[in-house]
Write a structure and sequence with these properties.
6-stranded antiparallel sheet, Alpha-D-Glucose-1,6-Bisphosphate, Chain A, domain 4, 181 residues, 9 strands, alpha+beta, globular, 3-stranded antiparallel sheet
Length: 181
C-alpha cells in the first residue's frame, strides 16, 4: 500500500442521491482516463483493491456466484462482510453486497477511457460521508491506474483529511441534509 501523498480533491460534483421512501442510493459517476479492461481489473483483483478500496477482498470479485469476504480497512473493530458476487459481466457490470448495501459498478467505454458509475445503497444517515469517501477512493483509483499513486485513504483516519471534511460538507449541502450525515 502506498503511503498517502498530499493532494487536493476536486469539487463535490460526482454524486447524486436517488430516494425511494426510506431507501436511498448514492450514485457516483466518474470519467476515468483508462480503458474498461484496466478499470475492471482494479475493481475485481484483490491486490489492486488494496491500493484504493475501503475494503480488502479474500478472492477475485470478477466471477458471478463466487463467495468473497470483504474486510473493512482501518476500522477500530474489523467489519467482515461475507458476500456472493451477484453479477459479473466483464468488463461492463459488477454487482455485490457490502454489509447491508448493494454495490453496482457499471463501466462504459468513452473516448479515451471509461465512464464508471457506482450505485451504493446506503443508510441515509451516512450518505454525505459515503459520497466523500467514495469520491476520495475514486481519486486514488484514477491515480493508481495512471501510475501516479497517491495512497489509499480509508477508515476513520480519512475523516482527519481536510479534503474529506470539505467534500462531506459540500455533498451534505448538495443533498439538502446536515453535514453530520
Amino acid at each position: 500500500m502506498t503511503p498517502p501523498k498530499p493532494y487536493t480533491p476536486g469539487p463535490a460534483d460526482l454524486a447524486r442521491v436517488e430516494k425511494n421512501a426510506e431507501d436511498w442510493t448514492l450514485v457516483l459517476v466518474r470519467p476515468l482516463r483508462h480503458p474498461p479492461e484496466a478499470v475492471w481489473q482494479a475493481l475485481t483483483d484483490p491486490a489492486q483493491l488494496k491500493e484504493w478500496a475501503p475494503f480488502d477482498a479474500d478472492a477475485n470479485l470478477g466471477q458471478a456466484g463466487r463467495h468473497v469476504k470483504l474486510n473493512t480497512v482501518g476500522t477500530p473493530t474489523p467489519m467482515v462482510s461475507e458476500t456472493v458476487i451477484e453479477r459479473a459481466e466483464e468488463p461492463r457490470l459488477l454487482e455485490y453486497r457490502w454489509g447491508d448495501g448493494l454495490l453496482r459498478w457499471e463501466l462504459e467505454a468513452i473516448d479515451g477511457g471509461t465512464r464508471l458509475t457506482l450505485w451504493h445503497g446506503i443508510d441515509r444517515r451516512y450518505i454525505a460521508m459515503g459520497a466523500a469517501g467514495w469520491h476520495l477512493c475514486l481519486d486514488v483509483l484514477d491515480h493508481a491506474l495512471g501510475g501516479t499513486p497517491i495512497g489509499r485513504r480509508v477508515g476513520p483516519a480519512v475523516m482527519q483529511f481536510e479534503g474529506w471534511q470539505r467534500l462531506r460538507d459540500d455533498y451534505a449541502a448538495q443533498f439538502g441534509i446536515g453535514s453530520d450525515a
